[in-house]
Write a structure and sequence with these properties.
seven-stranded mixed sheet; alpha/beta
Length: 322
């Protein structure tokens, strides 16, 4: 009887341990709060995504087109309780990863700088140059940075990134690796591959397709993340689709359409295997809200989804977990 009882206890322990591992495997690794999701026109809803490790309140901002209005909306929806917009800005946002210097990706950062706390701005040198020479200049705005036109207010410390080199995101448990993107003729943007332990999330700033931009930047990015897709370590890809397929290629201005995104996903699938990429979560960002573009883009992506990707359409102040 004692042997049987011990055997049952051992079996129960094994079952419980397996169940706990299953629960851990199903737990989201990252949480994302979109403060703004659109690609223009509505200044209260422009590209900005707060990313944190699930269970943490220490966020990094992936772009910063809209900050205050997005925080207010999240508080109004009681997603964040017992706090203020100022507290979230100063205490919860630990720093900014800025993909490029266009206003719809930096306006919230610039406007809110007078009320912000000291923190880092992580960006490639071509992006930091725009902040230094075009925005924080004492002509456009006071210089809240620590470089450029003196005197420096030193609210923000510029952290120049190097393509392919991982650096820690101060104040968080995450690290980031940047990749160069092409966003129109002679203009670069950035993709950020964020890591927590062995899991990753990929965020792309504005980008054109390699075929249109005559570059290999997306090809190089897909080659870098393909092993992570195969190992199920890449939890999601945030990528723009600004225009529907009807937009002429000569008027894309460094952006993607559903057709072009799906073509890029074919490139990734050729590297990973089509069965491996199935159900990969693709968060669609930066839709230009002209007419019924949003509905058309959703329809065009879903109708031609031969790879069986899981498309998610980001909404302002609607949290996501990966």
């Amino acid at each position: 009887m004692k042997i049987r009882l011990r055997y049952r206890l051992v079996v129960m322990m094994i079952v419980c341990m397996g169940f706990q591992q299953l629960l851990q495997a199903q737990q989201p690794v990252f949480k994302v709060m979109p403060l703004g999701v659109k690609g223009g026109l509505d200044e209260s809803n422009l590209s900005a995504y707060l990313l944190a490790v699930n269970g943490s309140s220490r966020y990094i901002a992936l772009d910063a087109g809209t900050i205050d209005a997005g925080i207010q909306k999240a508080i109004q929806k009681t997603i964040w309780k017992g706090t203020t917009t100022t507290a979230v800005l100063k205490d919860s946002i630990q720093g900014y990863c800025i993909s490029h210097g266009h206003l719809d990706h930096v306006a919230g950062l610039i406007i809110n700088a007078p009320n912000d706390s000291k923190k880092n701005i992580y960006a490639m040198p071509y992006c930091l140059q725009v902040l230094e020479q075009n925005y924080f200049t004492w002509q456009s705005w006071a210089n809240f940075g620590d470089a450029g036109m003196p005197p420096f207010l030193n609210t923000y410390h510029y952290v120049p990134l190097q393509a392919g080199k991982e650096v820690p995101l101060e104040g968080t448990e995450m690290l980031v690796t940047p990749f160069v993107l092409r966003h129109g003729t002679n203009y670069n943007s950035t993709a950020f591959l964020v890591r927590y332990t062995t899991d990753y999330l990929l965020y792309l700033g504005d980008t054109g397709a390699d075929t249109i931009e005559h570059s290999h930047h997306l090809q190089q990015l897909w080659a870098s993340v393909a092993p992570l897709v195969q190992q199920k370590k890449l939890k999601a890809i945030f990528i723009e689709v600004s225009y529907p397929n009807e937009q002429p290629e000569t008027q894309l201005f460094g952006h993607l359409t559903p057709k072009l995104l799906l073509s890029e996903m074919d490139v990734l699938a050729n590297l990973t295997g089509k069965n491996t990429i199935k159900n990969l979560r693709i968060v669609v960002t930066h839709i230009k809200p002209l007419g019924n573009n949003e509905a058309i883009i959703q329809q065009q992506l879903l109708q031609k989804n031969a790879l069986h990707l899981q498309f998610i359409f980001a909404q302002q102040a609607v949290p996501m977990f990966f």
